[in-house]
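Re: beginner question about structure tokens

> Can someone show what the tokenized structure looks like for a real chain? I only ever see the sequence side.

Sure, here's an example I had lying around. Input first:
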Amino acid sequence: MANETKYEFTLILAGVTELSSQIADALFVSGCDDGSPGSCGGQVTVDFCRQATSLETAIRTAVRDVSKAGFRVERVELESPQLLSA
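And the corresponding structure tokens:
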């Protein structure tokens, strides 16, 4: 699609403490095939690299897809761009 960019962000799922193959499968089937689910320290996360026309659209569609899988998003995390030193 025209004018689309890849955006990277992480969704933290609410009320889920450990990733299972059933959760991963449900996320994949619901449209999160561009996300990498994982769990650590009692949190389940999905790292996305989603192509969209804006960051807002990328996040909104990812949250929608997580909801279709039957889960809620607790929060969104974005990594700050890092400066490279010479």
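Each token stands for a local structural state, so reading them left to right follows the chain. Residues 55-68 form the longest helix (14 residues).
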